[in-house]
Design a protein that fits this description.
single chain, 334 residues, alpha+beta, 2 domains, 5-stranded mixed β-sheet, Nucleotide_cyclase, diguanylate cyclase
Length: 334
């Protein structure tokens, strides 16, 4: 008996090695397209089937000992082996069917033909059939429900991402990547409310690139776009998160906050004006200089948005008529 068990164990190791070989080799061939899915399933089922026969064979060996305790233990073992294999082979119907049948075919044959123990044989057949078909049905239904659930979650996530992207695109100027009109108008409204609560001024500046039309006419619109982007980057670098920067239109930008008093706001604007005048121009022809005119207000009054922007626009007009490359800042209400 000891030699028989040794031979059985050796055969088991061989079938496990063969199973590993098939798994690696066939999976690689499937990935590179050398074998189709049906042929893969049929070939891959060989090793599990041999493995099942080996386990069924050792059950028959134990059954010949005529020891009820050992037979009961062997029954538990082959059932465990069969059900354990279900989790690994369940995605290939041919594999798990051939594996289950090969595990139980020898024990069933032994009890029906050799041992004439029809009760045990019938129990094995019923149990195997029940698990093969009923549990497979439950598995298919549960996995289908889970698949639909995760598909729905994935769909919802995609919709959320699309909504975020659309919201971003609806609020951002595509060229300069700063707030467009609809976006900065909403933020200016919130800034006015905060100013009323904190009793601080609403600071608004309109920043216009001097002679921008001549830049476009002389150097082309591509260079003009580069100028717009570099001016935006300079302003963004010199302002903190309390500021909101938006594209007012064409070569004009709007900048506002309510965290600074009049003098501090004036210093920030002067730093912006001077930095733009001195900024290194990247990918822009030499000989081109860029300056800005700035019209700004610091208002402590409860004026409307239209009135605030109109006052800032009047200051910008003053800066342009006074010679450009300068700041005109007026204070209201204090």
């Amino acid at each position: 008996m000891g030699l028989t068990i040794f031979i059985w164990f050796f055969v088991l190791c061989c079938t496990l090695g063969l199973r590993l070989y098939f798994q690696k080799t066939l999976a690689h061939k499937l990935e590179i397209g050398e074998v189709n899915r049906v042929w893969f399933d049929a070939t891959f089922a060989i090793a599990p089937s041999l493995n099942g026969f080996v386990w069924g064979g050792v059950y028959c060996l134990i059954a010949t000992l005529d020891n009820p305790s050992l037979l009961l233990g062997a029954s538990f073992v082959i059932c465990s082996v069969a059900f354990h294999g279900f989790t690994y082979l369940t995605h290939s119907k041919l594999c798990y069917l051939s594996y289950f049948i090969s595990v139980f075919v020898l024990p069933v044959f032994y009890h029906f033909i050799l041992d004439s123990n029809y009760v045990v044989g019938t129990i094995l057949v019923i149990g195997c059939t029940h698990f093969l078909f009923y549990n497979r049905l439950l598995y298919d239904r549960s996995t289908a429900l889970l698949t639909r659930h995760f598909d729905n979650l994935e769909f919802i996530e995609r919709q959320k991402n699309i909504e975020k992207k659309l919201k971003y695109l609806s609020e951002i100027d595509p060229l300069t990547q700063i707030n467009n009109r609809s976006s900065y108008e909403k933020k200016l409204k919130a800034t006015r409310y905060r100013a009323q609560i904190t009793h601080k001024p609403v600071n608004i500046a309109l920043i216009d690139i001097d002679f921008f039309k001549l830049i476009n006419d002389q150097f082309g619109h591509i260079i003009g776009d580069h100028v717009l982007k570099q001016v935006v980057m300079t302003i963004d670098r010199l302002t903190d998160s309390s500021f909101t920067l938006g594209r007012y239109g064409g070569e004009e930008f709007i900048l506002f906050n309510n965290q600074q008093e009049h003098d501090a706001f004036a210093l920030t604007l002067e730093e912006i004006r001077l930095s733009i005048e001195q900024m290194p121009l990247i990918d822009i022809p030499s000989g081109l200089s860029v300056t800005v005119s700035i019209g700004a207000i610091s208002s402590y009054t409860n004026s409307s948005q239209e009135s605030l922007i109109s006052n800032a626009d009047s200051c910008l007009y003053e800066a342009k008529t006074a010679g450009r490359n300068r700041i005109v800042l007026h204070s209201y209400g204090k």
